[in-house]
């Protein structure tokens, strides 16, 4: 061992030097060179930093730099995230997406073009004019449909979601809601008044009949019984016989 090499190192180093830092790492750690100004210092890490990918060998595990347009990579030829200004597609960083794909500025990836999709049309609404369904001959009816898939930037835009067409209905008068309601209320009050009047008349009739019955019963109890008048012919018969 060189006199400048120490085995009592810190930070995961197996061997190190005062000038170059880590020279080798403990098992399962990755060795990587970090540049500080004009100087490179060896460090040992549990995983490789951004812009590097890890490779394992029997004698040493190393962190190697990704390609210049790659921010993170799995291997040198397979990028997982691109640097600004590039779009990721199949592990590669491209300045322009291939035909049939579009650039997604949010994820910085090349994605498939998505076209608008809509549902089926709803049935036509009743024929109306100014919010009414009566009192006119010509009106309009409408139908609707929903958007079930919004398009991407290069996708086909969505068509109209409403349609309107002219319609003809049989002319009829509209019953005014206020007037109809007022008539129904008046009929209800009149019916209630008539029923109340009939009830009062029936009550008065029953009271009068009961009073007359009670008066007859009282009169029959207070008046004396009339004696039966004698038969004048019977009383005078003996006197006539004597003559």
Automatic annotation (TrEMBL):
The entry's keywords: Disulfide bond, Glycoprotein, Heparin-binding, Repeat, Secreted, Sensory transduction, Signal, Wnt signaling pathway
Gene Ontology biological process: positive regulation of non-canonical Wnt signaling pathway; Wnt signaling pathway
Domain Spondin-like TSP1: 116-170
R-spondin Fu-CRD domain ranges (all copies): 11-110
Gene Ontology MF, one: signaling receptor binding
Transmembrane segments: none
CDD domains: FU
UniProt-listed SUPFAM superfamilies: Growth factor receptor domain, TSP-1 type 1 repeat
PROSITE patterns cross-referenced by the UniProt entry: TSP1
Region listing for Disordered, in residue ranges: 174-243
Top-level taxonomic group: Eukaryota
One Pfam family per UniProt: Furin-like_2
Biased composition (Basic and acidic residues): 175-219
Repeat is among the record's keywords: yes
Localization per record: Secreted
One cellular component (GO) term of this entry: extracellular region
Chief place of localization: secreted
Subunit structure: Interacts with the extracellular domain of FZD8 and LRP6. It however does not form a ternary complex with FZD8 and LRP6. Interacts with WNT1. Binds heparin. Interacts with LGR4, LGR5 and LGR6.
Free-text function comment from the UniProt entry: Activator of the canonical Wnt signaling pathway by acting as a ligand for LGR4-6 receptors, which acts as a key regulator of angiogenesis. Upon binding to LGR4-6 (LGR4, LGR5 or LGR6), LGR4-6 associate with phosphorylated LRP6 and frizzled receptors that are activated by extracellular Wnt receptors, triggering the canonical Wnt signaling pathway to increase expression of target genes. Also regulates the canonical Wnt/beta-catenin-dependent pathway and non-canonical Wnt signaling by acting as an inhibitor of ZNRF3, an important regulator of the Wnt signaling pathway.
Family affiliation: Belongs to the R-spondin family.
The protein's name: R-spondin-3
Gene behind the chain: Rspo3
């Amino acid at each position: 061992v060189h006199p400048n090499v120490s085995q009592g190192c810190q930070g995961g180093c197996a061997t190190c030097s005062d000038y170059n830092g880590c020279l080798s790492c403990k098992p399962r750690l990755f060795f990587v060179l970090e540049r500080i100004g004009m100087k490179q210092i060896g460090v040992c890490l549990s995983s490789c930093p951004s812009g590097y990918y890890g490779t394992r060998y029997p004698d040493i595990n190393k962190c190697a730099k990704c390609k210049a347009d790659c921010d993170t990579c799995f291997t040198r030829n397979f990028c997982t995230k691109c640097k600004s200004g590039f779009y990721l597609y199949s592990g590669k960083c491209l300045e322009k997406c291939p035909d049939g794909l579009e650039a997604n500025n949010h994820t910085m990836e090349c994605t498939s073009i998505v076209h608008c999709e809509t549902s089926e049309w709803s049935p036509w609404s009743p024929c109306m004019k100014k919010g009414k369904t009566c009192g006119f001959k010509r009106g309009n009816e409408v139908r609707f449909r929903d958007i079930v898939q919004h398009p991407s930037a290069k996708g086909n835009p969505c068509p109209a979601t409403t349609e309107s067409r002219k319609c003809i209905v049989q002319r009829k008068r509209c019953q005014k809601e206020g007037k109809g309601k007022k008539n129904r209320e008046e009929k209800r009050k009149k019916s209630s008044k008539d029923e109340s009047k009939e009830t009062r008349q029936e009550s008065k009739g029953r009271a009068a009949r009961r009073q007359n019955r009670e008066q007859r019963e009282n009169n029959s109890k207070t008046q004396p019984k009339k004696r039966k008048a004698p038969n004048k012919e019977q009383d005078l018969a003996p006197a006539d016989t004597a003559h």
